[in-house]
Design brief:
Elements lengths: L10 E8 L9 H17 L2 E9 L2 E8 L6 H19 L13 E5 L4 H9 L1 H4 L5 H9 L12
Antiparallel strand pairs: 1-3, 1-4, 2-3
Helix pairs in contact: 1-2
Length: 152
């Protein structure tokens, strides 16, 4: 850390967003390419994607931010707009692909980073037992999404 720097900012955010109407449009190749694009987009905005994964109808990722100037709502609006354009123009959807309005974003403590990464990396296994709808309800009601621990 630069001792001459007067402000130190460090934040981790778990972000989730879904396709419109939760349609399973993110085929494996589309999802992988979209995830790669998100990593590049984020790097250009000084955001480090620690891990990213998803299912045919939604994506999860964990980001690390070191700038207090980043406005998450602006970042997400631009990210969703750019990936929507990518998927429609370069992956053959021709205007049929759209993201659901909104997103989930939760700041997490440094101590929960590893468990959150594991949770995101294990999405395919996790969703053998739990639908996205049930997962979303659990997240929104503060039930932990990592190893059964409470979010409190």
């Amino acid at each position: 850390m630069d001792c001459n720097r007067h402000t130190y900012f460090s934040a981790f955010y778990h972000i989730v967003f879904s396709t419109k109407e939760r349609e399973p449009l993110l085929r494996d190749e589309v999802r992988v390419r979209t995830q790669q694009y998100i990593i590049g987009f984020s790097n250009k905005h000084n955001v480090h994607v620690m891990t990213i994964n998803g299912m045919p109808d939604h994506l999860h990722f964990l980001i690390y931010v070191q700038s207090p100037a980043l406005v998450i709502s602006d970042y997400m609006r631009e990210l969703k707009k750019a990936t929507n354009k990518l998927i429609n123009e370069q992956m053959g959807y021709r205007g049929r692909f759209r993201w659901q309005e909104g997103y989930f974003c939760q700041a997490i403590s440094r101590e929960r980073v590893d468990s959150c990464c594991r949770y995101i990396q294990n999405q395919q296994e996790h969703h053998k037992k739990l639908s996205f709808h049930d997962e979303w309800l659990a997240i929104m009601h503060g039930i932990s999404n990592d190893e059964g621990k409470s979010n409190s």
